[in-house]
Amino acid sequence: MLAAATSAPADATGNGAVAFLQACRAAGMDTCIANPGTTELAFVRAFDHVPGWRVVPALFEGVCTGAADGYGRMARRPALTLTHLGPGFANGIANLHNARRARSPIVNVIGDHTSAHLPFDAPLTSDIDSLARPVSAWVAHLDDAAHAARIGREAVQQALASGGQTASVVFRADAQAAAAPAVVPGAGVLAVPQRAGVAPAAVQEALRRLRQGRTLLLVGGDALGEQGLCAAQRIAVQTGAALYCETFPARIERGGGLPAPERFPYFPEPAFALVQGFDTVLVAGALEPVTYFGYAQFPSRIVEPHRLHMLAGACDAAGDALSALADALGCAAWVPAPMQAPRVLPDGAMDGAAAARAVAAWLPQDAIVSVEGGTMGYPFFTASASSARHTVMTNTGGAIGQGLPVAVGAALACPGRRVVCVQSDGSAQYTLQALWTMARERLPVTVVIAANQRYGVLQNELVRDGVKVIAGAAAALTSLADPSLDWVALARGYGVPGAAVRDGGALREALDASLAVAGPYLVEVLL
To answer: Would you call 384 helix, strand, or coil by DSSP?
Structure first.
């Protein structure tokens, strides 16, 4: 929510905004994604007085928060968001919901009216706390510049706690502009707190269950790095356990010969059918599996409590727990399987699965892939097991509009790596403005849009609910074809070049062309 500028004081040094930024910078932060307004103008000026910050503007607050999520997942330290009062912050809440589920470290600064103006209920006055608390693990108020540095450092500490979380600071405009003490020298970079260690009793119970029955091993969180995946595979080979990862992992290392767990099913029918074949579902680093929605014919809990064993919680050192369990079992060392070349597709027309396999076969070494949408997302994940080594991030919380902004944040966090956004057309419209930020910052992002001109997931749910033919209101409310979206034109309007393709050969040519562009490139796959 951009607002009109007002006159600036002659000297912006030494105020609350400067002290806050100095404290955050000293604690290790260096990136801010911002959509400020009138009540944040002290921050706008303060960045000129605190060296070391990269300030990235965004056209919509949902891009700010989604980019901060992607940055936190990849950098494992927080980015700063700067938004305007309650209504501006509210525009970013959906992606903060996703960030909360992903345990991404984020620090939000939300401007507020001056103390003297708050009693008059001006048009933009709101209960900011009621907006911030549901998506924040910690909320602080700054109405005295003398506390700016202390609260800035505490905000970073809070963001790094519990495996990563959101810390929000409601910062009054007069406190931003008022004189503030300098940051105490020598306040070093904050260390990421250690995750909770392995519980010996949990390891022993896991040993007992693995030895006495059929086990499904469900891994997530910290267990989806190389250490955890290799330990989980050692256990699976030794015991015959089936290996799955959580349905929507925040970050998982993939390809290059790494162990490649399948995703736990999204729809309830295959999820319940899967777990019925096992005596125990052993969880490490994930939450208990539950249905995504409440269905009349299914209970919410997919696994009965007596068949569920939590080896390590979602915030725990699940990789260490799996390594300890593998060692206790006497598992052999993990040996990488020989790499299989991804299947090269024919040059003809494609559906979403064929296009996804083509992207997986093309994927550059050490790419970061932001996935949103099922048309290409699910088949890409399966095909990517035989891709070059890469990192995948998925939509952890289910709030739509994550894919493009998370790609922005990943590119900011890892400038030496190519980012690929595998994105459905409907969900991309929620945060389309991210394309402008990609272009402005010259971010190396290849955006691949699955353009089937419909909300595919809703049509799938209608069929599952007994609808034989999607027509009438159901067709009208799930179609994007009247008028059709022109993604290449939309991208061009934001400064991003691109191409529309219909067949496999043209897709591979367009993907290669994206690598030659000094910045983002969009490929619209017409399905």
So the answer is: helix
